[in-house]
Amino acid sequence: MAKHNDLGQKGEDMAAQYLEQHGYCILERNWTNMGRKELDIVATKDDVAVFVEVKTRRAGSAQGPLEAVDARKQRRICLAADSFLKANRIDFRSRFDIVAIIYNDEGSRIEHIEDAFRARPKFY
To answer: Helical H runs in 22-100?
Structure first.
């Protein structure tokens, strides 16, 4: 596995652990629909389906993790979430969160942005 895949897996493991520690129930990890639509983590909390995009970057990377979740990526996540809800016949309220991780061997920083697609400011 490539180093960036290893880092991504570490980040997803950290995100899942963080979410569980904060009262989320993990339903799925790395859910795919016919290999084209992918969701990093699907969880529930307080009767809300939460679709979590996890972005991990090494400390000092040129692009931060939040910058990687652009409008195109958000659209793909929304389509995947719609497929997940239909495939599983789930009729919960839902939202989209981002867990951004700055990874450092000595200690990582986790930032959890709830309802991120609506709440994130647009920079022009």
So the answer is: 71-87
34-65 tens-digit pLDDT = 767 799 999 999 999 999 999 998 887 767 77
For the segment(s) 3-117, the CATH number from 3.40.1350.10, 3.30.565.10, 3.30.590.10, 3.90.550.10 is: 3.40.1350.10
Domain definitions of the chain by residue range: 3-117
φ and ψ at residue 43, rounded to 5 degrees: -135, 170
Strand 48-58 with 109-113, pairing: unpaired
Computed on alpha carbons and rounded to an integer, the radius of gyration of the chain in Å comes to 14
Is 30 a residue whose pLDDT tops 90? yes
Please name the residues in contact with 48: beta carbons below 8 A apart, sequence gap of 6 or more.
92, 93, 94, 95
